[in-house]
Design brief:
7-stranded mixed beta sheet, 12 strands, alpha/beta, 12 helices, 3-stranded antiparallel beta sheet
């Protein structure tokens, strides 16, 4: 039996989306900038996808900017808004548990003269609206806080944060990285009160290499990619029509099945946590998201357990997959003040609509078999 529990790294593409993409690549392959029938058909696919994604977050289709994925969406939001507003201020607020696609653009902006305040989170991975509002100043141009943490699944209070920020400084933009939230939690940009929101396709059964950024109408943003002026000049380059259409279809399916999917993942999450924590010295660090389970197996290094599970056909992750430096210690686990031993023994199991109870039970049974043996080997 095989069980794939690394869905926060990437998901299996929806078969219908793959079929649609193949059709576009082999039959409806026009350039959306062309004025003939092939181009118009390609443009239609883009408009349909924008409408589907907009409906899923209660936005307008014209507020959706297609990107190459979550990293570009985050970079565009941060760098684009900072450059557009630098005359009004040079101060940005974030947290110490953000994804590298937030952390690295902010490090770049610091080199350009911007000041970045990184707020600490509590042991549950949460920063409060009061903490954020207290850090807001007259020259604060941007606040960026993720909606769901990709390693421990903490759900941050974005609506409360946005409200508090706007009350303190109405001109401060609020951005949220919703890459691990989209497709798992209900999202309404109106209720959240954010100015920008990032999405990545391959986290919800769309293909890799496609994502989008919600940009509230009227938000000032400087393009970071220049060229032919596609997407109203906000992101030049011929649009990836097959991937955009695939993401649009995946978003449509997700939106219609969201309640069912969330309930399914939540049940599997609770079953997995219950089974794993029944073993001695296995600690759960999961913080609420339906799809993310974070467990430390005391006495066994994460990499050892990961490869032992892989040998049994079970695929998990030791933290975030979005880093070329696989040996780097998790800043998230450090931020919630896990001990060095816990950090070194923590694995992430991440679920999707495709996982089953049988797979969860197989993982529990396999750990029951492996754990005593690996601990004996390590401690012996």
């Amino acid at each position: 039996m095989k069980a794939y529990f690394d869905n926060s790294a990437t998901t299996r593409v929806l078969p219908e989306a793959a079929e649609l993409m193949t059709k576009i690549m082999t039959e409806d392959y026009g350039n959306p900038s062309s004025m003939h029938a092939y181009g118009l058909k390609a443009e239609h696919y883009i408009k349909d996808a924008a409408a589907s994604i907009a409906r899923s977050i209660h936005a307008l289709p014209e507020e959706i900017l297609f990107t190459s994925g979550g990293t570009e969406s985050n970079n565009t939001a941060l760098v684009g808004s900072a450059l557009a507003k630098r005359r009004k201020g040079m101060h940005i607020i974030t947290t110490n548990i953000e994804h590298p696609s937030i952390g690295e653009p902010l490090a770049f902006l610091e080199k350009e003269g911007f000041e970045v305040t990184r707020l600490p989170v509590d042991h549950k991975g949460i920063v409060t609206a009061e903490q954020v509002a207290e850090a807001v100043r007259e020259d604060t141009i941007l606040v960026t806080v993720m909606m769901v943490n990709n390693e421990i699944g903490s759900i941050l209070p974005i609506a409360e944060i946005a409200k508090a920020v706007k009350a303190k400084n109405k001109d401060t933009y609020v951005h949220t990285d919703a890459i691990q939230a989209y497709g798992k939690l209900p999202i309404s940009v109106k209720e959240l009160g954010v100015d920008m929101l990032s999405v990545s396709g391959h986290k919800f059964h769309a293909p890799k290499g496609i994502g989008c950024l919600y940009i509230r109408k009227g938000t000032l943003l400087r393009p970071v990619i220049y060229g032919g002026g596609q997407q109203k000049g906000m992101r030049s380059g011929t649009e990836n029509v097959p991937a955009i259409a695939g993401m649009g279809l995946a978003a449509e399916r997700m939106n219609s099945e969201l309640g069912e999917r969330t309930a399914h993942m939540t049940a599997l999450r609770d079953r997995l946590i219950g089974g794993m924590t029944s073993f001695p010295e296995v600690t759960d660090h999961s913080m609420g998201a339906p799809q993310i389970v974070s467990l430390s197996f005391k006495g066994v290094r994460a990499e050892v357990m990961l490869h032992a599970l892989e040998a049994e056909g079970i695929y998990v992750s030791a933290g975030s997959a979005c880093s070329t430096n696989k040996k780097k210690e998790s800043s998230v686990l450090a931020a919630i003040e896990l001990s060095p031993e816990e950090r070194e023994s923590t694995l992430r199991f991440s679920l999707s609509k495709d996982n089953t109870k049988e797979e969860v039970d197989y993982a529990i049974e396999t750990v029951a078999k492996l754990l005593p043996m690996l601990r004996h080997y390590t401690r012996g």
